[in-house]
Design brief:
alpha/beta, seven-stranded mixed β-sheet, five-stranded mixed β-sheet, binds fe (ii) ion
Length: 560
């Protein structure tokens, strides 16, 4: 009998569910994609009662597994490792309330999934779940493992050695020392949302100089046991806090640059320690800090490992998958490495046609949807691209994407306007895998999950200005035709027209909203934004009056 293991993340933020059957990842999705509430819930102790019931139910439904048929449910937090619970649950910033809710989680899950036996729920230590989401999903039989996070039960980091699916923990830094919380804290100081907008600090950093690096080096430093110290810093020493509506000044960019640079240095030192202990050539990473693609790229370039692999849902959402893989392994199932991030919801062509008919919008089924979209993009149109199963993790990888022409510099501002984002935020390119080395270097290729930054080679920066960040880099997604045949065909069709095998690819969503997930979200997004064309599976909806989206009678003429 196949083992069926559901994983859930419910404690801090980004609630999510994943289903593993016989060691194989069948489904994984974040709760926010269903509830349309960014990050799923507020990251406070008293929201821990919420369980990701919609994503969990979808996981079971899509695999036709009834709740009573589950062999185990992995919950990615172990209350036995948390600080001892006090009588007063309001003490210690509600820490005891959080622990109490986690202890009751089997009953909450039984309510959400009628028929579930609460006795099958197993608690997996938070950072073991993060670690398993990397080493059991990565394409390595053995590797070093590094988890860098805000916090778990009582630690913020894990360094380990994985061999044949078994993890040996070599170091775990105890709280309150936390690189993730240092980064979160400066995120709040710079006027962004903590535990949510850390990537904006990373983007802002490239506009500054690491002017305060000396002070950061004194306060945040590694220790000889594989861990680190992170003393509290009063950020006001360096720059005043940014209040809502205020502009960032150069001191703020310098502060972001200093924290970013120190994070990279500490990451390199931790990796060096881990490399010496394990002797492994490959490193698998997870935890929220692993989503810092500038730091991961520095580690790839300057660190001791030949290969660095980051799980695409490296944040807390990924612990649903990691927990499920860990428990499945414990039940005796060898894990099958992750084949891709398209693990969320998808619809058949007939279902998509039903949604379009229901919306009453005129649509067509062109002979080749890739060609039709490439034509619109080459005419400087913006295309909302909805195809296949939704991505697990924060990056759009050609399933729920907004696509545009990278040759037009103004498309950066245009897309940031569509998405209601700050203008300092870069947009990223997707590129055909076999052409990537000619255009980008300084980062791993292939890079299918858009988790590393690369340098744009001389001669190409001027050709694709919309995707070149202020520091001359780009966070690329390489597209392998064997893995993503339709997206590869789209890139080829665009290249035939323009000579450029690159497209701007940013997530399909509008300001402050989770990524588009279902056809209704896609239609609402198309209806409320100046997008020229909506592609849904094999169907195309053109914006009335859009010059870019006009049907081309003889595309072969342009292709010549
Ligand atoms: Fe975490």
């Amino acid at each position: 009998m196949p083992e069926r293991v559901l994983g859930v993340n419910a404690v801090f933020h980004d609630p999510a569910s994943a289903l593993v059957v016989d060691g194989r990842i069948v489904a994984a999705a974040e709760e926010e994609r269903f509830t349309r509430r960014k990050h799923g819930k507020i990251p406070v102790a008293f929201s821990t009662w919420e369980v990701p019931e919609r994503s969990a139910r979808w996981c079971l439904d899509t695999a036709r597994v009834a709740a009573h048929e589950l062999d185990a449910v992995a919950y990615s937090y172990d209350p036995a490792l948390a600080p001892a619970r006090s009588e007063d649950v309001t003490a210690d910033e509600w820490e005891s309330l959080r622990t109490l809710y986690v202890e009751r989680a089997p009953l909450f899950l039984q309510s959400a999934l009628p028929g579930l036996d609460p006795a099958v729920v197993r608690f997996v230590p938070h950072h073991v779940a993060h670690a398993a989401s990397a080493y059991l999903a990565a394409p390595f039989r053995s590797c070093a493992v590094l988890v860098l996070d805000g916090r778990g039960e009582c630690a913020s980091h894990l360094a380990g050695h994985a061999r044949e699916g078994q993890l040996v923990v070599l170091a775990a830094q105890r709280l309150p020392q936390s690189l993730g919380l240092v980064y979160e804290s400066v995120t709040g100081h710079l006027g962004f949302k903590r535990a949510s907008d850390e990537y904006k600090v990373m983007a802002l950093a490239s506009y500054g100089r690491p002017a305060f690096l000396g002070e950061l080096r004194d306060a945040v430093r590694t220790t000889r046991d594989g861990g680190f110290m992170a003393e509290p810093l009063d950020w006001r020493r360096f720059a005043p806090p940014v209040r809502p509506g205020e502009e960032w000044r150069s001191a703020h960019a310098d502060l972001a640059a200093s924290v970013q640079r120190r994070l990279e240095e500490v990451l390199l030192e931790l990796a060096q320690w881990l490399h010496e202990r394990t002797g492994e050539r490959a490193l698998a990473m997870a935890g929220g800090v692993a989503l810092n693609c500038v730091a991961s790229s520095r580690l790839w370039r300057d660190g001791p490992f030949d290969e660095v692999w980051v799980q695409p849902a490296a944040g807390d959402a990924g612990t649903a998958l990691g927990g499920a893989l860990y428990v499945a392994r414990d039940l005796g199932d060898a894990a099958t490495p992750m084949a891709g991030a398209a693990l969320g919801r998808g619809w058949s062509d007939d279902e998509l046609a039903g949604w379009l008919d229901g919306a009453g919008v005129p649509y067509e089924r062109p002979p080749d949807v890739a060609d039709a979209a490439a034509e619109t993009i080459a005419r400087n149109g913006v295309v909302a691209w909805f195809d296949g199963r939704a991505e697990y993790g924060p990056r759009a990888l050609g399933h729920r994407s907004l696509l545009a022409d990278p040759r037009n510099r103004a498309n950066l501002e245009r897309l940031n306007d569509v998405k209601g984002r700050e203008q300092f935020r870069p947009v990223a390119p997707m590129v055909l895998l076999d052409r990537a080395p000619e255009i980008f270097d300084g980062g791993p290729i292939p890079s299918p999950y858009m988790l590393f930054t690369h340098r744009v080679r001389d001669g190409w920066s001027e050709r694709i200005p919309a995707v070149v960040h202020v520091d001359g880099t780009a966070r690329i997604q390489t597209v392998d035709p064997a893995e993503e045949p339709l997206v590869a065909r789209l890139l080829r069709a665009f290249e035939r027209r323009t000579g450029v095998p690159v497209l701007v690819n940013t997530s399909l969503n509008t300001a402050g909203r989770p990524m588009v997930d279902d056809p209704r979200d896609a239609l609402e997004c198309f209806g409320s934004t100046p997008v020229d064309m909506l592609v849904m599976g094999p169907f195309v909806v053109r914006r009335p009056g859009s010059a870019a989206a006009v049907r081309q009678a003889r595309p072969e003429v342009l292709a010549a």
